[in-house]
Amino acid sequence: MADGLRYGEKAIKEVRLEVWENPCPDRDYLIELSFPEFSCLCPRSGYPDYATIRINYIPDRYIVELKSLKLYLNSFRDRYISHEAATNRIYDDLQKVLKPRFIEVIGDFNPRGNLKTIIRVSSKGRTP
Questions:
Q1: Is the domain covering 7-122 a CATH 3.30.1360.70 domain?
Q2: Which sequence spans correspond to the domains of the chain?
Q3: What is the side-by-side order of every strand in the sheet holding 31-41?
Q4: Residue 39, CA distances (Å) to 6, 12, 53, 71 in order
Q5: Tell me: the pLDDT tens digits for 39-55?
Q6: According to the model, what pLDDT value does residue 80 have?
Q7: Can you list the positions of beta strands (E) in the chain?
Q8: Closest CA to 106 of 126, 128, 85, 91
Q9: Which residues are marked as active site?
Q10: What is the rounded CA–CA span in Å between residue 117 and residue 109?
Q11: For residue 124, what pLDDT is reported?
């Protein structure tokens, strides 16, 4: 820990979304991912927000490498970002690296102040 970071903190800090070649590029198939331990910080209050992030996509040439995705999603835990901005950022970053045939990102945030928020961002004009 010469730099003061534990190995997990260092991995999160240095994360890049990685992709693999799609093993079945000639076929449409849906990949459904769920990350139930997502957290970020409210940009107004600084209180933590918790959510389940769901990612559904039909790959084209690439699929996301799961460990890099886990570390990427964990990188939001100390970030001051709204529910809407977090969900849209995840969508944008995955869209950029995967260029999938279809993608949908759902931020299903735990209630705060007795109000539940679900943010859904998906490819225009496409549904799985």
A1: no
A2: 7-122
A3: 31-41, 48-58, 102-112, 115-122
A4: 19, 14, 10, 12
A5: 999 999 999 999 999 99
A6: 98
A7: 19-21, 31-41, 48-58, 62-64, 102-112, 115-122
A8: 91
A9: 42, 49
A10: 5
A11: 74
